[in-house]
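3.2 Worked example (two chains)
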Amino acid sequence: MSGLAIFTGVEVMFYWLGVLSLACVQGLVWLRWKLQSSWISLVVLAAGMGTMLFAAAWAISSILEKEPQSASMSMMVIMLPGLVLATLGGRLAWK
């Protein structure tokens, strides 16, 4: 048995959500410093990324609670608007 067996799915999920959140924030800072993106585009992009992170957390926790229908609905209802927001914000930021 390995030493990682003490971690359940919830701890691993929160670890990777933290890593992804840090990567999103670093990406926003890079866009602001290197490309001089407008604040409104960064706000739209941050809202989209935050919504997608929330949808992923919802789906993973639903799977861990053995509720696959809730997981699939969260991916459709929460993830798709987040994807649209992130795409719109990314297009505005790269202009």
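3.2.1 Second chain
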Amino acid sequence: MSAIVHVVESFGGGTLAMVCAFANRQAQDGHAVTVIHSVREETPENWPSLFDARIRFIQLPMQRSIHPLNDWRAGVALTRWLREIAPDVVHLHSSKAGALGRIASLFVRGPRYFFSPHGLSFLQRAEGQLKNTVFLTLEKLLAHTSVTAIACSHSEAGEIRQHLTPRVAVVENAVDVAAIPKAPGNTGVVRIGTVGRVALARNPELFAEIAARLTRPGVEFVWIGGGDESGEAALKAAGVTVLGWLPRAEALKALATLDIYIQTSRWEGLPVAVIEAMAAGLPVVATDVVGNRDLVRNGDNGYLVRDAAGFVAALEPLLADAAARRAIGARAHGFVAANYSLDTMMSTLYNVYGIPSHG
């Protein structure tokens, strides 16, 4: 049996889904698993029910933005917990936990440390060049620690090798394809939607622009999730139905009511929401960014585009052709079922950790 600690500040959305998948399987495989986490606005109220009962939880206040005093306090507390637990493996998730954990690795020797960015901070195009340069500089400094990066897609791994370190492994995100409800397709109204937090990364303003151009009798736009007030206001002004935060099971049921899935992200790692949409048998139209381009084969199981005009050009034929939607969606489902299974993901992860799969 190995002792494994996951550290995560970004306790919601796709990052939470992957931490759940990792931790639950590891607990089922007989390992001692601890999750050190924060709670965000988008953290579902029922989050404990998502995890195996054998997992230990430690709530540690970390915050998304840079705050020297709070970050120092969180780093000291994290270091103390790691010394007390003395794990074999420490797996850090997303930017803030990744930064604090890599600094802690300098003071707590012994564990094998791994860091999954779940989307690289310096690729956040909307943050501006100055802020991205700061993020990249910080990541380059932290890359000098003896922590192995785990990319969730091959395109993300390429960015890490180019900008940060050659010490990177690839463990692609996956979902339980059989557990995703299939979208039967609607008769009459065509529903176009997405799943996730209404936030800068997901570019709700672009989604709103697409909706404003294409909403007409027989076409509806839906955002499954909630978040920033300004983003929600832009969506609602464009006629988009914003469902707000739903428990995972309800969100998946809502996903299955769609006919077309669109992903307007400014940046990604390997989007779990897109994998789930493809597993549901939906055609996907997505921005041509890191992560999306690992999943979407342009013209085969979906379309990659760069702007609102590209989305409109890809969506117009799909709106008019239900048979094309079904055919592309079927290819999307087959692609995910063949390439993104939980068993493959976990086998790869254990190999990267360098520990046996079963305790």
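3.3 Remarks
The chain has two domains: 3-174+341-353, 177-339.
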